[in-house]
Design brief:
290 residues; 14 helices; 78% helix; 0% strand; mainly alpha
């Protein structure tokens, strides 16, 4: 039985879905992918009732767990859109269980469960529990990086910036080898920056703690997309602490990476302009110190 509806999924969407499922394009598989694309389109169009009905029909046609997972995820999203919070949470949980062999889908389901709890549950600890699981169980998935931001935004207003630092450090110890690790370090450092200003002594202590976090990020995760940001922030701290030579060394490293990026076809970003400005200041201070 084929699903019907207005609009035809594009070939690009079908190709992406086919790659995600890791399947050859047999006639039956192609028909399934077309109908799955239709369900996803209805969710994107916020036609949730239609999407939920279509997903329920399509679920019975799934050939295996790999094809079932995106159907369940779309159904959970439709249920959430309809305000069926309990049903949506149960379906998200089912995705996380059934789709363990598909980390991308399973992590996304857990993340969206956390988002639903964060907006609908009166107890923020429920959402925090789920977001922490995303980070520790799926540290290499994009959903983990998004979960870090939610954790920061839940913990910070309730417990303060220093609690965010403790949270990020705790999660880092559990996910230090994952792709999410540098994001945890960077968010901890950003939280410390917010904590500065409570007094000269506290400011000095937090500044040194921030510098230590940036140093760990640069040493252990030099290829992270946050490495340049960490180097620039570390250089700014070094300038404030009267260490222009260290600042200049960090900034030259950032600008050298920019030249490499240009060679492979990248483009200018604001962080390079900031690095150039700070490097001028660092060199001026070095000249003045001679």
């Amino acid at each position: 039985m084929r699903l019907t509806g207005t609009g035809t999924p594009t070939g690009c969407i079908l190709a992406i879905l086919d790659l995600a499922l890791g399947c050859a394009a047999s006639p039956g598989r192609t028909a399934f992918l077309e109908d799955l694309a239709l369900v996803e389109a209805r969710v994107a169009q916020r036609r949730y009732e239609e999407a939920a009905s279509l997903a329920e029909v399509l679920e019975a046609r799934a050939l295996d767990d790999a094809s079932l997972c995106p159907v369940l995820l779309a159904r959970a999203r439709a249920q959430a859109g309809l305000g069926q919070w309990g049903e949506a949470l149960r379906t998200f949980g089912r995705v996380a269980r059934v789709c363990e062999l598909s980390p991308l889908v399973s992590a996304r389901a857990l993340f969206e469960m956390g988002c639903l709890l964060a907006t609908q549950s009166p107890d923020p600890e429920e959402a925090l529990f789920v977001f922490r699981r995303v980070v520790t169980r799926f540290p290499d998935e994009p959903a983990a990086r998004r979960a870090v931001v939610w954790i920061r935004d839940i913990v910070g207003p309730r417990q303060g910036a220093l609690a965010v630092v403790d949270e990020m450090r705790s999660l880092y110890r559990q996910a230090a080898s994952g792709d999410v690790a540098p994001y945890l370090l960077f968010q901890a450092a950003e939280a410390l920056r917010e904590a500065e200003g409570a007094g000269d002594t506290v400011r000095e202590d937090t500044r040194r703690d921030r510098l230590a976090l940036y140093a760990v990020l640069l040493e252990r995760h030099p290829d992270s997309r946050l490495a340049d940001d960490a180097a620039v922030e570390a250089a700014r701290i070094c300038l404030d602490m009267g260490e222009p030579w260290t600042a200049a060394t960090l900034l030259v490293g950032v600008l050298r990476r920019r030249e490499t990026s240009w060679f492979i076809g990248s483009y200018e970003t604001p962080i390079y302009a900031e690095a150039e400005k700070l490097l001028v200041e660092a060199r001026q201070r070095l000249e003045e110190g001679r």
